[in-house]
Specification:
Length: 405
């Protein structure tokens, strides 16, 4: 994939280096799309724009959509509109031709400039996978004849707005989400159904799919296999998100969980990762296991105290993705980590808040991998249930993926 056009690449570099506001004359969103519109070869028979500019996991979960479109329309040009934070997530995907950054914090005038510039791409179809008013309005103003999107019934304003602006909609009702677990409501399946309704093809595979950065893979190997560890030593990755609190485990309890994982699986390597906003649990683990803290470059704890524990923070997305790809099991309350594990075919032990358990498993649960989904209501001894789940998933191992049909 060419990451935007050459002019647009320079535009994004200026944003990154100088932190320029997107409305500035030098790096306005309309100028970037204009450059891209000129560079799209005329040989493309279809132009498709897909909007997904919310959270990281929300973008990963619709990755089968891009593959389905390209499999059925190899001469289509596919543009992804995403957030600045997520622009590198699918950068290595062979199914996306260009990426344009959209920022929901832009002013009204900046959003208007972006919408007007979007028409220069002359899309034939748009799919709005960010179910908010910005996405529905942008899809309508794009000028595409076919416009599809997803509506969540409990968002009343967008529920009224979307049918006026889109030609195809799929309504997801709160009653369905809360009643029972329903794989039919998984967001990857919803995206594929909407693509089929626009005539963009049927999916041959529903597996999540993102690329890996070779440099990040090599970096991961240096810190998991170059320390005298056995080549077949299992790798447990514990993600430290603030969502643990909503699931019923506070900082001391997650610290105890990390220690229990070490005791029960003494031959395993325990990797602990935290995102830039996950400071509370990271600080607690760093205080409890200071020798594990990755200072500059990650290092394992000495053999006399909790050997083979490494605590990471401040990782680039490509590094975090490579660590999850190397893991034997991912343990997390975070849907972004769940979707990355699914994309890399890594088994998952995921914990969800009890009051949203059915909804989260239905719409955002693991797909295509072995997993255990737990909650405090279903598993009062949550830490103990996690230890059992990890042991079971280690015994099962990774399942080979079937070839697309």
């Amino acid at each position: 994939m060419n990451f935007l056009s050459s002019d647009l690449t320079r535009h994004q570099s200026r944003l990154s280096e100088h932190g320029s506001r997107p409305g500035a004359r030098e790096s306005g969103p309309d100028a970037s799309i204009a450059s891209l519109a000129k560079d799209i070869p005329k040989r493309y028979s279809k132009r498709v724009v897909i909007f997904r500019y919310d959270k990281l996991g929300d973008l990963i979960i619709i990755s089968p959509l891009f593959r389905a479109i390209k499999d059925s329309n190899p001469d289509a040009h596919v543009t992804l509109v995403c957030s600045q934070y997520n622009k590198d997530v699918l950068r290595n995907s062979p199914y996306i031709d260009s990426i344009v950054v959209y920022d929901r914090s832009w002013s009204f005038w900046e959003k208007g400039r972006f919408a007007l510039a979007l028409r220069r791409l002359r899309p034939d179809a748009t799919l709005v996978m960010s179910p908010d008013k910005d996405g529905f309005i942008l899809g309508f103003l794009s000028g595409a004849a076919r416009r599809a999107g997803m509506i969540l019934s409990y968002r009343r304003f967008t529920r009224l707005l979307a049918p006026l602006l889109l030609t195809e909609v799929e309504l997801i009702g709160r009653d369905l989400l809360n009643k029972a677990i329903n794989p039919h409501l998984h967001q990857s399946r919803i995206a594929l159904r909407l693509a089929a309704r626009l005539g963009l093809g049927e999916a041959r595979s529903q597996h999540l799919d993102i690329g890996l950065d070779p440099a990040a893979v090599a970096w991961t190997a240096a810190y998991t296999r170059a320390r005298g560890n056995a080549a077949d030593a299992p790798i447990l990755l514990l993600h430290l998100g603030d969502s643990w609190r909503n699931c019923g485990l506070d900082e001391p309890e997650v610290c105890r969980l990390a220690a229990q994982l070490r005791r029960q699986f003494p031959d395993a390597i325990l990797l602990m990762t935290a995102g830039p906003a996950d400071t509370s649990y990271f600080n607690a683990l760093a205080a409890e296991f200071p020798e594990a803290l990755a200072a500059g470059l990650p290092r394992p704890m000495p053999p006399d105290r909790h050997a083979n524990m490494i605590l990471f923070s401040g990782l680039a997305f490509t590094q975090w993705s490579a660590l999850i790809n190397a893991a034997s099991i991912v343990i997390t309350p975070d849907t972004g980590a769940v979707h990355l594990a699914s994309a890399h075919n890594v088994p998952v032990a995921v914990v969800y808040p009890s009051n949203r358990f059915n909804r989260l498993v239905s719409m955002f649960g693991p797909t295509g991998v072995s997993f255990r989904a737990l909650s405090k209501a279903l598993n009062p001894n949550l830490a103990g249930a996690l230890l059992v789940s990890v042991a079971e998933l280690l015994a099962e191992g990774r399942h080979p993926r079937p070839e697309p049909t």
